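Q: I'm building a small set of examples for a reading group on sequence design. Run inverse folding on the following structure and report the sequence directly after it, with nothing in between.
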Protein backbone atom coordinates (compact mmCIF):
# COMPACT_ATOMS: atom_id res chain seq x y z
CA UNK A 1 0.00 0.00 0.00
CA UNK A 2 1.11 3.53 -0.73
CA UNK A 3 -1.56 5.34 1.27
CA UNK A 4 -0.41 8.96 1.68
CA UNK A 5 0.73 9.67 5.22
CA UNK A 6 -1.18 12.95 5.00
CA UNK A 7 -4.45 11.01 5.11
CA UNK A 8 -3.81 9.51 8.55
CA UNK A 9 -1.29 11.77 10.31
CA UNK A 10 -2.64 13.59 13.40
CA UNK A 11 -6.11 12.13 12.90
CA UNK A 12 -7.11 10.83 16.34
CA UNK A 13 -7.90 12.98 19.38
CA UNK A 14 -7.83 11.25 22.77
CA UNK A 15 -11.46 10.99 23.92
CA UNK A 16 -10.82 8.38 26.60
CA UNK A 17 -13.03 10.16 29.14
CA UNK A 18 -16.11 9.72 26.95
CA UNK A 19 -18.45 6.74 26.38
CA UNK A 20 -18.37 3.92 25.73
CA UNK A 21 -14.87 3.57 27.22
CA UNK A 22 -15.35 6.37 29.78
CA UNK A 23 -12.06 5.85 31.59
CA UNK A 24 -11.66 7.25 35.10
CA UNK A 25 -9.57 10.42 34.99
CA UNK A 26 -6.47 8.83 36.52
CA UNK A 27 -6.44 6.00 33.96
CA UNK A 28 -7.15 8.38 31.08
CA UNK A 29 -4.22 10.58 32.14
CA UNK A 30 -1.85 7.62 32.42
CA UNK A 31 -2.88 6.33 29.01
CA UNK A 32 -2.38 9.76 27.48
CA UNK A 33 1.12 9.96 28.97
CA UNK A 34 1.93 6.54 27.50
CA UNK A 35 0.64 7.62 24.09
CA UNK A 36 2.73 10.79 24.24
CA UNK A 37 5.83 8.76 25.00
CA UNK A 38 5.08 6.38 22.11
CA UNK A 39 4.73 9.29 19.69
CA UNK A 40 2.24 7.58 17.37
CA UNK A 41 1.84 9.65 14.19
CA UNK A 42 -1.92 8.99 13.91
CA UNK A 43 -2.52 10.68 17.27
CA UNK A 44 -2.96 14.43 17.57
CA UNK A 45 -1.77 14.14 21.20
CA UNK A 46 -4.69 16.35 22.21
CA UNK A 47 -6.58 15.32 25.35
CA UNK A 48 -10.31 16.03 25.13
CA UNK A 49 -11.72 17.12 28.49
CA UNK A 50 -15.11 18.51 29.52
CA UNK A 51 -14.92 21.96 31.09
CA UNK A 52 -16.67 20.60 34.18
CA UNK A 53 -13.84 18.10 34.80
CA UNK A 54 -10.86 20.38 34.36
CA UNK A 55 -10.17 20.60 38.10
CA UNK A 56 -10.03 16.81 38.28
CA UNK A 57 -7.45 16.76 35.51
CA UNK A 58 -5.32 19.52 37.02
CA UNK A 59 -5.09 17.66 40.32
CA UNK A 60 -3.30 14.79 38.56
CA UNK A 61 -0.81 16.72 36.44
CA UNK A 62 2.89 16.83 37.24
CA UNK A 63 5.14 19.83 37.32
CA UNK A 64 6.95 20.26 34.05
CA UNK A 65 4.56 18.28 31.83
CA UNK A 66 2.22 19.87 29.30
CA UNK A 67 -1.13 18.52 28.15
CA UNK A 68 -2.60 19.93 24.94
CA UNK A 69 -6.33 20.19 25.48
CA UNK A 70 -9.42 20.11 23.40
CA UNK A 71 -11.87 21.72 25.81
CA UNK A 72 -15.47 20.54 25.53
CA UNK A 73 -18.13 23.02 26.67
CA UNK A 74 -20.38 20.58 28.51
CA UNK A 75 -22.28 23.00 30.76
CA UNK A 76 -22.90 26.74 30.74
CA UNK A 77 -21.04 29.89 29.74
CA UNK A 78 -19.81 30.51 33.29
CA UNK A 79 -18.22 27.07 33.52
CA UNK A 80 -16.61 27.48 30.10
CA UNK A 81 -15.18 30.91 30.92
CA UNK A 82 -13.79 29.68 34.25
CA UNK A 83 -12.18 26.64 32.62
CA UNK A 84 -10.54 28.76 29.91
CA UNK A 85 -9.13 31.12 32.55
CA UNK A 86 -7.69 28.20 34.52
CA UNK A 87 -6.07 26.71 31.44
CA UNK A 88 -4.50 30.00 30.40
CA UNK A 89 -3.07 30.46 33.90
CA UNK A 90 -1.66 26.92 34.24
CA UNK A 91 1.73 26.32 32.53
CA UNK A 92 1.00 22.59 32.44
CA UNK A 93 -1.91 23.13 30.06
CA UNK A 94 -2.22 24.45 26.52
CA UNK A 95 -5.59 25.23 25.00
CA UNK A 96 -5.38 23.72 21.52
CA UNK A 97 -9.05 24.01 20.53
CA UNK A 98 -12.61 24.41 21.79
CA UNK A 99 -15.66 22.30 20.99
CA UNK A 100 -19.07 23.78 21.70
CA UNK A 101 -22.58 22.27 21.34
CA UNK A 102 -24.48 25.42 20.37
CA UNK A 103 -27.86 24.25 21.64
CA UNK A 104 -26.51 24.79 25.19
CA UNK A 105 -25.93 28.49 24.44
CA UNK A 106 -28.97 29.63 22.49
CA UNK A 107 -32.07 28.70 20.51
CA UNK A 108 -30.40 29.24 17.15
CA UNK A 109 -26.87 29.26 15.79
CA UNK A 110 -26.53 33.03 15.47
CA UNK A 111 -27.52 33.89 19.05
CA UNK A 112 -25.59 30.92 20.40
CA UNK A 113 -22.39 31.93 18.59
CA UNK A 114 -22.82 35.48 19.84
CA UNK A 115 -23.03 34.16 23.39
CA UNK A 116 -20.03 31.88 22.95
CA UNK A 117 -17.95 34.67 21.41
CA UNK A 118 -18.69 36.91 24.39
CA UNK A 119 -17.66 34.11 26.74
CA UNK A 120 -14.36 33.62 24.91
CA UNK A 121 -13.31 37.26 24.66
CA UNK A 122 -10.22 36.63 26.84
CA UNK A 123 -9.17 33.49 24.93
CA UNK A 124 -6.41 34.11 22.36
CA UNK A 125 -7.89 34.58 18.92
CA UNK A 126 -5.68 31.88 17.39
CA UNK A 127 -7.46 29.14 19.38
CA UNK A 128 -9.93 27.48 16.97
CA UNK A 129 -13.57 26.87 17.82
CA UNK A 130 -15.56 23.92 16.45
CA UNK A 131 -19.31 24.39 16.83
CA UNK A 132 -21.92 21.64 16.83
CA UNK A 133 -25.16 22.73 15.14
CA UNK A 134 -28.38 23.02 17.09
CA UNK A 135 -29.92 20.45 14.72
CA UNK A 136 -27.25 18.32 13.10
CA UNK A 137 -29.49 17.25 10.23
CA UNK A 138 -29.59 20.91 9.14
CA UNK A 139 -26.03 22.26 9.04
CA UNK A 140 -26.81 25.26 6.83
CA UNK A 141 -27.78 27.65 9.69
CA UNK A 142 -24.49 26.82 11.40
CA UNK A 143 -22.46 27.50 8.26
CA UNK A 144 -24.26 30.83 7.79
CA UNK A 145 -23.57 31.80 11.40
CA UNK A 146 -19.91 30.80 11.11
CA UNK A 147 -19.56 32.96 8.00
CA UNK A 148 -21.03 35.90 9.93
CA UNK A 149 -18.40 35.43 12.65
CA UNK A 150 -15.48 34.95 10.25
CA UNK A 151 -12.32 36.74 11.31
CA UNK A 152 -12.89 36.43 15.05
CA UNK A 153 -10.87 33.20 15.33
CA UNK A 154 -10.47 30.00 13.26
CA UNK A 155 -13.94 28.46 13.07
CA UNK A 156 -15.19 25.03 12.14
CA UNK A 157 -18.10 22.63 12.49
CA UNK A 158 -18.52 19.49 14.55
CA UNK A 159 -20.13 16.31 13.23
CA UNK A 160 -21.61 13.87 15.76
CA UNK A 161 -21.52 10.36 14.32
CA UNK A 162 -23.09 8.35 17.13
CA UNK A 163 -23.71 7.99 20.83
CA UNK A 164 -25.27 5.77 23.47
CA UNK A 165 -28.68 5.64 21.73
CA UNK A 166 -29.62 4.55 18.22
CA UNK A 167 -31.19 7.92 17.36
CA UNK A 168 -27.84 9.63 17.93
CA UNK A 169 -26.38 7.92 14.86
CA UNK A 170 -26.99 10.06 11.76
CA UNK A 171 -27.95 8.40 8.50
CA UNK A 172 -25.54 8.22 5.58
CA UNK A 173 -27.72 10.83 3.87
CA UNK A 174 -27.29 13.22 6.80
CA UNK A 175 -23.53 12.66 7.03
CA UNK A 176 -23.11 13.10 3.27
CA UNK A 177 -25.10 16.35 3.35
CA UNK A 178 -23.03 17.63 6.29
CA UNK A 179 -19.70 16.79 4.64
CA UNK A 180 -20.68 18.26 1.28
CA UNK A 181 -22.05 21.43 2.87
CA UNK A 182 -18.84 21.98 4.86
CA UNK A 183 -16.60 21.33 1.87
CA UNK A 184 -18.65 23.64 -0.36
CA UNK A 185 -18.49 26.40 2.26
CA UNK A 186 -14.78 25.89 2.92
CA UNK A 187 -15.49 25.16 6.59
CA UNK A 188 -13.29 22.53 8.29
CA UNK A 189 -14.96 20.07 10.61
CA UNK A 190 -14.16 17.65 13.40
CA UNK A 191 -16.02 14.42 14.06
CA UNK A 192 -16.93 12.72 17.30
CA UNK A 193 -18.68 9.67 18.73
CA UNK A 194 -19.46 6.35 17.09
CA UNK A 195 -16.33 6.08 14.91
CA UNK A 196 -14.99 3.08 16.78
CA UNK A 197 -13.66 1.19 13.77
CA UNK A 198 -12.24 1.98 10.35
CA UNK A 199 -15.07 0.38 8.36
CA UNK A 200 -18.83 0.83 8.53
CA UNK A 201 -20.30 -2.03 10.56
CA UNK A 202 -23.10 -3.11 12.86
CA UNK A 203 -22.02 -3.64 16.46
CA UNK A 204 -23.31 -7.05 17.62
CA UNK A 205 -23.64 -5.98 21.26
CA UNK A 206 -25.97 -3.04 20.50
CA UNK A 207 -27.27 -3.52 16.97
CA UNK A 208 -26.17 0.04 16.16
CA UNK A 209 -24.71 0.61 12.70
CA UNK A 210 -21.52 2.65 13.07
CA UNK A 211 -19.89 4.86 10.49
CA UNK A 212 -16.27 3.96 9.83
CA UNK A 213 -13.50 6.51 10.21
CA UNK A 214 -11.95 5.38 6.92
CA UNK A 215 -15.34 5.69 5.22
CA UNK A 216 -15.59 9.24 6.52
CA UNK A 217 -12.06 10.13 5.42
CA UNK A 218 -12.59 8.81 1.90
CA UNK A 219 -16.07 10.34 1.66
CA UNK A 220 -14.53 13.70 2.56
CA UNK A 221 -11.82 13.16 -0.05
CA UNK A 222 -14.58 12.46 -2.59
CA UNK A 223 -16.39 15.68 -1.70
CA UNK A 224 -13.15 17.69 -1.79
CA UNK A 225 -12.46 16.26 -5.25
CA UNK A 226 -15.80 17.52 -6.57
CA UNK A 227 -18.01 14.52 -5.88
CA UNK A 228 -21.72 15.13 -5.29
CA UNK A 229 -23.80 13.92 -2.35
CA UNK A 230 -24.65 10.65 -4.10
CA UNK A 231 -20.96 9.85 -4.60
CA UNK A 232 -20.13 10.78 -1.01
CA UNK A 233 -23.03 8.70 0.29
CA UNK A 234 -21.86 5.69 -1.72
CA UNK A 235 -18.45 5.80 0.00
CA UNK A 236 -20.05 6.09 3.43
CA UNK A 237 -22.08 2.95 2.70
CA UNK A 238 -19.10 0.70 1.87
CA UNK A 239 -18.72 -2.20 4.33
CA UNK A 240 -15.85 -3.94 2.52
CA UNK A 241 -12.54 -3.03 4.15
CA UNK A 242 -10.60 -4.22 1.12
CA UNK A 243 -12.51 -1.87 -1.14
CA UNK A 244 -11.83 1.05 1.18
CA UNK A 245 -8.16 0.13 1.30
CA UNK A 246 -8.00 0.06 -2.51
CA UNK A 247 -9.63 3.48 -2.68
CA UNK A 248 -7.22 4.87 -0.11
CA UNK A 249 -4.32 3.46 -2.11
CA UNK A 250 -5.40 5.42 -5.22
CA UNK A 251 -5.40 8.82 -3.49
CA UNK A 252 -2.71 11.26 -4.46
CA UNK A 253 -0.89 13.26 -1.83
CA UNK A 254 -2.78 16.36 -2.92
CA UNK A 255 -6.14 14.61 -2.56
CA UNK A 256 -5.20 13.39 0.91
CA UNK A 257 -4.18 16.89 1.98
CA UNK A 258 -7.44 18.32 0.64
CA UNK A 259 -9.43 15.72 2.58
CA UNK A 260 -7.62 16.56 5.80
CA UNK A 261 -8.01 20.30 5.31
CA UNK A 262 -11.73 19.54 5.48
CA UNK A 263 -11.75 16.76 8.13
CA UNK A 264 -9.39 17.97 10.83
CA UNK A 265 -9.57 15.03 13.26
CA UNK A 266 -11.98 12.86 15.18
CA UNK A 267 -12.28 11.95 18.84
CA UNK A 268 -11.85 8.29 19.72
CA UNK A 269 -12.34 6.76 23.15
CA UNK A 270 -9.79 4.11 22.12
CA UNK A 271 -6.41 5.39 20.98
CA UNK A 272 -5.09 1.91 20.19
CA UNK A 273 -7.81 0.56 17.89
CA UNK A 274 -7.57 3.19 15.13
CA UNK A 275 -3.83 2.55 14.88
CA UNK A 276 -4.08 -1.24 14.86
CA UNK A 277 -6.86 -1.16 12.27
CA UNK A 278 -4.91 1.18 10.01
CA UNK A 279 -1.93 -1.13 10.27
CA UNK A 280 -3.96 -4.23 9.44
CA UNK A 281 -6.17 -2.73 6.74
CA UNK A 282 -3.84 -0.31 5.00
CA UNK A 283 -0.50 -1.88 5.91
CA UNK A 284 0.70 1.52 7.11
CA UNK A 285 4.13 1.75 8.76
CA UNK A 286 2.77 3.17 12.02
CA UNK A 287 4.52 2.68 15.33
CA UNK A 288 3.29 0.03 17.73
CA UNK A 289 0.99 1.31 20.46
CA UNK A 290 2.54 0.92 23.88
Amino acid sequence: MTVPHALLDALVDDAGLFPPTALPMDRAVERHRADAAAGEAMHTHRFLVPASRLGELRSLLRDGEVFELGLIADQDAETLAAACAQILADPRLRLALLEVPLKAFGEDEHTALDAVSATLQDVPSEVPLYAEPVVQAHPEPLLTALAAHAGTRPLGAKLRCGGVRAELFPSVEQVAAFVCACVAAGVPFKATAGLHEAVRHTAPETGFTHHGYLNLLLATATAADGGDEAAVRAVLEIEDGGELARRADTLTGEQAVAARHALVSYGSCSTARPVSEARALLNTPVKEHE
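The CA atoms of residues 109 and 142 lie 6 Å apart.
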